[in-house]
Write a structure and sequence with these properties.
The protein is α+β, with helices and mostly antiparallel strands. Helices cover 28% and strands 30% of the residues. A hairpin with a 5-residue loop joins strand 31 and strand 32. The relative contact order is 0.08.
């Protein structure tokens, strides 16, 4: 992911270029307000902060009209003055910018009064096509530039590709691709070599951390003084020692955390150019303190394309579903041939075949103790329970229009749901029909249109996804309350791991968070078209999917969006979260599968091995393996090393880097307080 460059770099102009006569601004950013307002603001802030001395307000002044203009009727006059006082002109190239009258005026002024050698193109959207024969842009296909630039450039200009940034949430210098782009642009504006500028950024950040450490030390001294002033001499001496020790320990912990984050940032900055150095720096960062930023940097440096360790065949007409057993030692797959197959997860050997007259297995589940396997077929409307040890069929239940089936978390009940029909509870040991909560509810509402259902973590409650979702008391067999608030059909509901909250997704373009004890609405999450929502296994995240092929990650309270996972132009088929909630695996309709960090939205792995749409991705219970199935019939099993412990990741990184940091690299990249 990240930044692409013509000729692999965005080079600075020759030293003969003369700056403006009165240089108040290092650069002037020209952009289409409707398209690139957020990106332009992030770019200005990034240029202000990159390699900024701690004692200065900003590294350079960059003009952006929404922040740099005073309120005046002489708007164009103000812009002209800013243009005249700028050294460089940065054009955010996109179709809206190409048609903006303001952008065209600004470009025209620059070409009339200044040199094209100081005009930099940052490509954010649309098309840029250079015609080598005509020595100009191909204006029949170029949509991102204003026509005023026709026949202006003598040769193809260098430009910065920032198209990825339009779909990235919260652009800051912590985003590796954006940080790399800002570094390259800043190097051009300052006419400095890129590696020297990155080193300057690291040095300035290190200086700021030393200043912070000095401030912490002064606070510690002040705290000790206050202690002596308040208490008697002996009590004060004892108390001050404890206070000083606590403050010193806290300050030391804070400094280590800041140093760890600084080194992690250096690792990500180095990653596009020197992966071995990036790996070694990331290892240093987690060794100093395993902060979230350090662990994320290490995983990003280890990002890879993974091939399947095992490919399991047998579902000749297509595989539909696969899942690991609760202990992770085996996995069960089902497909169009109507046979469920049980495989050894280590060797890939076939252990059992669960055969019955069936037109296809579309769902599998396991009893919590792993002793029974549930298979369901939407084609023959039958759910079957099997003995996991010998493959004996224990019983089967039938339901018209069956869509899926599952065990309750306590293993006592079996739930079957009919597509836009009914939900039925069965005794999981005998197959006896127990309750029909959807039908009971339907008698009150005169209809039953259940789309899905889900047990609470303790199995005592059941949420039925009807037009208005309802929460059902399983032991008492009665309705508790309705979840009222959505204005269109609800498609899915999920419980938080502690059973205290519910999240729902609806066709009304919202997801909602609810109090699971009362049904009170806690938060509304707006979307373009919400289609699915679920909690992470630990409850720290809520992930929602939309028809725009984008996944949104929210904190567990639903109050803040923390990341966006952009899958475009691919179409999402299904997704699953790792057991610790750190990763998300997304199966795509083009046959590819991608793994993302949930907290950052950054892709860390691509899985190959399918040539048809992928279904049913799932993590192993320990998070160290992934299984996928393809409609071509393959069941692929992947080792996923990023799901290991931090120490295992460090060992993997050291094996890939195959060297140590040099003394020069340590002096350049590591804070002086970091261990050598």
């Amino acid at each position: 992911m990240g930044v692409l460059h013509r000729h692999n770099a965005m080079t600075a102009a020759a030293g003969s270029l003369s700056p403006a006569t009165t240089s108040q601004y290092k650069a002037f950013i020209s952009y289409g307000h409707a398209a690139d307002s957020t990106l332009a603001d992030a770019l200005q802030k990034g240029l202000h902060r990159f390699a900024k001395p701690w004692y200065r307000l900003r590294a350079m002044r960059v003009f952006l009209d929404k922040t740099g203009l005073a309120v005046t009727p002489q708007l164009w006059g103000s812009i002209q003055r800013a243009l005249a006082e700028a050294d460089w002109f940065i054009l955010l190239a996109s179709p809206p910018a190409a048609h903006s009258e303001w952008v065209q005026q600004e470009v025209d002024w620059w070409l009339t009064n200044r040199s094209t050698d100081r005009l930099l193109v940052v490509w954010t959207d649309g098309d840029l096509v250079w015609d080598r024969a005509g020595k100009d842009f191909d204006w029949s296909r170029t949509s991102a530039l204003p026509r005023r630039l026709q026949a202006v450039f003598r040769q193809e200009p260098n430009y910065l590709d920032l198209r990825f940034a339009r779909s990235t949430a919260y652009l800051t210098l912590r985003h590796p691709g954006f940080c790399d782009a800002v570094a390259r642009l800043s190097a051009t504006l300052r006419e400095m070599p890129l590696d020297r500028l990155i080193g300057e950024d690291i040095r300035q950040h290190r200086t700021a951390m030393r200043a912070l450490g000095l401030g912490s030390a002064l606070l510690a001294v002040l705290a000790i003084g206050v202690g002596f002033a308040v208490y008697t001499a002996r009590t004060a001496e004892t108390t001050a020692t404890k206070v000083a020790g606590g403050i010193e320990a806290a300050a030391r912990q804070q400094r280590q955390g800041e140093n760890s984050r600084e080194i992690a940032r250096s690792a990500l900055a180095a990653l596009p150019m020197r992966r071995d150095l990036a790996l070694l720096l990331a290892v240093e960062a987690v060794g100093l303190q395993p902060t979230a930023e350090a662990k994320s940097a290490l995983r990003q440096c280890l990002s890879a394309t993974l091939s399947p360790r095992l490919t399991l065949t047998g579902h000749a007409d297509g595989a539909y579903v696969a899942s690991f057993t609760p202990d992770g030692r085996r996995l069960v797959s089902g497909g169009a041939d109507g046979v469920a197959r049980v495989w050894d997860a280590d060797s890939g050997k076939l252990a059992l075949e669960l055969r019955a007259p069936s037109k296809g297995v579309t769902d599998v589940d396991f009893a919590p103790d792993g002793k029974r396997i549930l298979t369901a077929s939407a084609y023959d409307e039958t759910a079957r329970v099997w003995d996991a040890a010998d493959g004996r069929r224990l019983f089967e239940v039938r339901q018209e229009s069956l869509s899926f089936a599952q065990f309750s978390p306590d293993g006592r009940h079996l739930l079957t749901v009919a597509d836009q029909g009914d939900a039925v509870l069965w005794d999981a040991a005998t197959g006896q029909r127990l309750q029909q909560p959807a039908s009971d509810y339907a008698r009150m509402r005169r209809a039953s249109w259940v789309y899905s259902a889900a047990f609470s973590p303790d199995g005592t409650r059941l949420v039925l996804v009807d037009w208005v979702p309802v929460v059902w008391d399983v032991p008492a067999g009665k309705l508790l309350f309705e979840l009222e608030g959505h204005k269109a059909q609800v498609r899915g509901v999920d419980w938080s791991p502690d059973g205290q909250r519910l999240v729902s997704a609806s066709e009304d373009r919202t997801a909602r968070l609810w109090d699971a004890g009362s049904g009170r609405s806690l938060a509304v999450l707006p979307h373009d078209a919400a289609v699915k929502a679920l909690f992470s296994p630990g409850g720290e995240w809520i992930v929602t999917g939309t028809a725009e092929r984008v996944l949104h990650v929210w904190d567990g309270t639903g109050q803040k969006e923390v990341a966006i996972i952009d899958l475009r132009p691919n179409e999402l088929a299904s997704f699953a979260l790792s057991p610790d909630g750190t990763f998300l695996v997304a199966a795509l309709e083009d046959g590819s599968t991608e793994v993302f960090e949930v907290g950052t939205g950054i892709r860390v792995a691509m899985l190959t091995g399918h040539n048809a749409p992928v279904r049913s991705p799932a993590f192993a219970p320990d998070g160290r393996a992934i299984v996928t199935v393809g409609l071509e019939g393959r069941v692929n099993l992947y080792d996923f090393p990023l799901g290991g412990t931090v120490q295992e990741l460090v060992t993997l990184a050291r094996s890939q880097a195959a060297r140590e940091l040099t003394s020069e690299e340590r002096a350049r990249y590591l804070p002086t307080s970091a261990p050598r």
